[in-house]
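Hi L., both proteins are below.
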Amino acid sequence: MANAELIRLALCPSMAWRNGGGSMRLVATHPLDGGADDFDWRISVAEVAKDSPFSAFPGYDRCIALISGNGMTLESGDLDLNHRLDNPMQPFYFAGETRIHARLIDGPMQNLSVLARRGSHWITLTPLASPTRLQLAARKAPLFIQCLSGELQIDLHDHESIHLLSGELVLWRSDSPDMHLISHSDKTKALMVDLGTQST
């Protein structure tokens, strides 16, 4: 499993938002010593507890997807953006500098959040619902897979396998191998994030 980082969400550090609207579990960032506002990309899971504004990240592109709860509506001050995030695992892309206020639909919720520096990386978030059998070619760009429920089997080209259960994640910061993603359970749900670069 060369270059693969196996991560348990429950062990990721949790940080409360400054506005008290929720908290965030930081899953991965690049570079590793990147600050809160100075990184190439960042992956986290946000736990939204009440209506609150989003933090602005000028110069970054963002993508979020609902992973638990009933979701939220996202509105910008000029009303150019009005989006209902209530379809689980479906990506919503927007510019990091957009001023957004989130309103919970019915109770707390969680979402996967991906930030990428504009011009350095682009984000593709793909939901994986069972049954799944997907072949992926080796790539240089970062690749991230999170299992939300059930079990996901990842067969690598060197005859090794990774088995992800709910709440487990795997990350290749670069040089991910050829692989097959396999699930035979109708309970398996997962998300895959491809952080491509201009050269990939």
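That was the first. Here is the second:
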Amino acid sequence: MLFTALVAYTAFLIRQSRRASGGGPVTSGSPPDTDAPQSASWLRNVALIVAGLAALVLGSTWLVAGAVTIAETLGVSELVIGLTIVAAGTSLPEVATSMLATGHRRR
């Protein structure tokens, strides 16, 4: 049910985007003149996504490892560490990504 809702929402967003931009894809016979800049832009975007994902994984790993070390030093039990610090540390990357995506969408 959630997957169907996701597909429906994505289709809705695509239709809204096409209406706002004034139509669908270009259907003229000639290709656009700016192939090189589009290709460079695409490669740059892919590189930024990969770098962002790597930084997100690395940062969350450091956060969890550091928090666990501090908690163990303070004598917190492994059960409490697992239920709080690890749970929060593994969900923070999703929260950060969602917040950044929301802020970028509003610009």
